[in-house]
Amino acid sequence: MGCYMFVREIDKRIRILFLVLFIPFVLIILRVIYIQVFQYKKLNSYAKDLWSRDLELEADRGKILDRNGIVLADNLTTTSLVLIPNQIKDKKEVTEELSKILNISFEDMKKHVYKKTSIERVHPEGRRLSYDVAEKIQKLEFEGVYLVKEAKRYYPYHDLLSHTLGYVGIDNQGLSGLELQYDSYLTGKNGAIQYFSDAHGNRLKMSDVYIAPTSGMNINLTVDIHIQQSLEREMDNIVDMFHPDMALALVVNPKTGEILGMSSTPDFDPNEYQKYDSATLSRNYPIWASYEPGSTFKVVTMASAIEEKVVDIFKDRFYDAGKVNVDGSILKCWKAGGHGDQTFLEVLQNSCNPGFVRLGQLLGKEKLFSYIHQFGFGEKTGVDLNGEGQGIVFPLNRVGNVELATSAFGQGPSVTPIQQVMAVSAVVNGGYLYRPYIVKSVSDHTNSVVKEYSKVMRRRVISQQTSAIMRIALEHVVAKGGGKSAYIEGYRVGGKTGTAQKSENGVYLVNNYIMSFMAVVPSNDPEAVLYLAIDNPKNTAMLSSYTTTPIARRILLDIIDALKISKQKGEVDKDLEWNDKVTYEVPNVIGKSIDEAKKELIHFKVVTEGDGNIVFEQSPRGGEKIEDGSIVRLFLK
Fold first, then answer.
1. CB atoms within 10 A of CB 71
2. Best-predicted range by mean pLDDT (464-468, 477-481, 506-510)
3. pLDDT by residue (tens digit) across 303-335?
4. Cα diameter, the chain
5. What is the per-residue pLDDT across 425-452, written as a single tens digit (0 to 9) for each?
6. Average pLDDT over the chain, rounded to whole?
7. What span, in angstroms and rounded, lies between the C-alpha atoms of 468 and 495?
C-alpha cells in the first residue's frame, strides 16, 4: 500500500511538471505565431529602419500658369551634397577636397564630415549646387559622398507678376504671395533612394530601392500674360519718365471679377528675393495701397444719383461759377472761373467738383454713403490674395455738410485700387458687384482639374438702365472730356481721370498728388476695366490727362489685341484738339469705276493694283476711319 501511494505521488508530480513545462511551451508557440502572422509587417518595419537608409529626393513644386497655359513659375533640377559619415574611409582627405570645391573653411566642412549621424545633409553650403561644382564632386568618387536631386524654383519672366506670385525659401517652401497661400497644393511628396547598411553604417551589397517623388499640383491663373507684359512695360516707362514714389495698374474682367493683370512698382525678381527689403517684398499695391481716390470716385457718385433719379444727366443743368461755399469752406473747381452752364453729363466730362457737390446734396448723406458701402468701399473685396487693405469710410455720425460735399467728388474716403476697379465694374456691367479672383483652377500633374473657381456675385447695386446710361457717359468723357488722350479710333472706350491730393497727419501736401485713370473697353459691352495710378510723378504737369491717360491708351491697345476686341462705331466722335490728326471714314467704292472711286476718295492717296477699270476689292475696307492723306489700295478687274 505504501509503495502504491509512493508511485501515485510520483505520477502526480510528473503530471504537474508536464503541465508546468507544456503550458509555457504552448504560450511561446502562440506568441511566435502571433508575431510571425499578425505583427510581421510592424516588426519588419522596425528592423528595416535599423539597417535601411533613405537619400531623400525632393519633389518638384507644382507650376503656376497663366490663363493660356504659359508657365510663370517653374522648376530647375539641381543637386545637393549628402554625406554618410560612417562610409567615409579617409575623412581628412574628403574634408580637404570638399572644402576646396565648396569654397568653405576646413573647420566648417569638418563639422559635417565628422558628425556622428547616419545621414548628413550639407546645409547650406551644399544646397542647390551648380553643374560645375556637382561635376567636380562626382569625379572624386568618394565613398559615403552622394549627390541627390533637388528642385529649385525658377521664375522665367523674373519680375513679372512678382508680388502676386511671391517666392519660396531654400527648402522650397512658399514664403509669400500665391506660393505661400497655395503652398499645400504646390508642395509635392518627396521620394527617396533607399539603401541598406550594417550596424556600423557600412553599405550592404543589396539592391537599392527607388521611391519616385510626386510633383505638386499646378495653379492656373486668370491672368493673361500679354496684358501682364503690357502693364510691366508701362510700369518701367513710368519709372523712367516720372520717377514716382509708387505706380500700379490693374485689369479686371467686369463680367466675372477675373483679374487679367496686376502690377506695381517697386517690384522684385523672386529668383533673387534675398536682395530686396521687406517693404518691397510685401507690398502688393493694387490690393494693399489705400488713399483718397480723387475724381475716379465721381463715377460712383454719378451712378448713385442716376439710380436714385435725383438727376437726368442729359436734361438737367448746373451752372459752375468755379467754386462753391459749403458751411464756410470754399470748394473750388480745377478750372479758374468754372465751366459755366452745362448739363450734368458735361459735369462728369469736365470733372467739375462744384457739380458733384450738388449731386451729393441732392442725394443726402444717408443715400450717398449707403451706395458707397454697397459698392464695396470700407470692406475687403475678398480677393484670393494675402495682404488686402480695407480702406476707410467716414462713419455716418461724423459726416457733416462739408464731408458730404468732399466725399461726393472723391476727397475724404480712403479706398484701395481693387475696391475702385470692382466698384466701376459694377457700374458698367449691369450693376453686379463681383468678388475679384486670380486663381482659376488647381490641377494635378495629368492636367486633371482638382478644384475650380468661378465668379461670385456679392450683391446687385444698380439697375441695368443706370448702368447703360453710365457706359454712355464714360464714353463721352473719353471723346469730349478729360480722357481724350485715351481715345482710340474705331474702338469704344470709356473712362474717368483722377487727381487726388495726398495728405499726411491730416494736412494736405503741396504739389504731391496721385494721378489716376479708370478705363472701360469696349464701353458698350465691357470686357476689361483698367485702373492706372501714379503716386507723386516728378517733372510733369499735375494733370492725369498728361500723365496716366496716354499710358493707359497704350495698355488699352494691348488689351484690345489680347482679348481680340472687334472694331465698331462709337457712341460719340472725339472733339478734336490742336494736335489731333484729322481722320475720315473710308467710303465703300467696290463695284465702281476707277474714276468714280477717286472722286469719293479725295481725302486719301489712292494706289491701284491691276489693269482693269472696275474696283473689286479695297484696303482698308469701307467704313473704317483713317488719317487724312493715308493710302487706300484699290484692286481692279
1. 16
2. 464-468
3. 999 999 999 999 999 998 888 999 988 988 888
4. 156
5. 999 999 999 999 999 999 987 888 999 9
6. 86
7. 14
Block residue for cell numbers 550592404 = 204
Residue 39, pLDDT > 70, answer: no
In angstroms, what CA-CA distances link 284 with 245, 288, 417, 443, 588? 14, 6, 11, 26, 51
Q: How is domain 289-437+453-554 classified at the CATH fold level? A: Beta-lactamase (3.40.710)
Higher-confidence residue of 342 and 627: namely 342
Q: 139: phi > 0 → left, psi -120 to 50 → alpha, else beta; which? A: alpha
- 105 confidence band (pLDDT: 50, 70, 90): confident
Indicate the residue type of 635.
F
**Global pTM?**
0.79
User: Residue for cell digits 557600412?
Assistant: 202
Range 583-636 classified under CATH 3.40.630.30: no
| CATH fit for domain 54-221, picks 1.10.10.60, 3.40.50.1370, 3.90.1310.10, 1.10.1040.10 | 3.90.1310.10
Cell 457706359 sits at which residue? Answer: 471
Distance CA 293, CA 424 (A): 12
**452 has which bridge partners?**
441
Q: Would you place residue 289 in the very low, low, confident or very high pLDDT band (cuts 50, 70, 90)? A: very high
CA distance 494 to 496: 7
- Please give the average per-residue pLDDT across 538-560, as a whole number: 85
Q: What is d(CA 615, CA 606) in angstroms, rounded to the nearest whole number?
A: 12
In three-state secondary structure terms, 497 is strand
The residues, any chain, with a CB within 8 Å of residue 353's CB and separated by 6 or more, are: 324, 331, 332, 333, 334, 409
Q: Give the chain's end-to-end CA distance (angstroms, integer).
A: 147
Q: Which of 430, 431, 452, 426 is nearest to 441 (CA)?
A: 452
For residue 499, the cross-strand partners are 515
Answer yes or no: 295 catalytic.
yes
Copy the grid coordinates of residue 334: 480745377
User: Of 545, 528, 525, whose CA–CA distance to 537 is shortest?
Assistant: 545
- CA–CA gap between residue 240 and residue 234 (Å, rounded): 10
Instruction: Given the residues 80, 176, 264, 295, select the one marked as catalytic.
Output: 295
Q: Which of 136, 166, 173 is nearest to 151 (CA)?
A: 173
Contacts of 53 (CB under 8 A, 6+ apart): 84, 118, 119, 194, 195, 196, 197
Phi and psi angles of residue 79, each rounded to the nearest 5 degrees, phi first: -125, 155
Instruction: Give the C-alpha separation, 519 to 552, whole Å.
Output: 8
DSSP 8-state code for residue 59: P
Residue 341: exposure state from Cβ atoms within 10 A (0-12, 13-18, ≥19): exposed
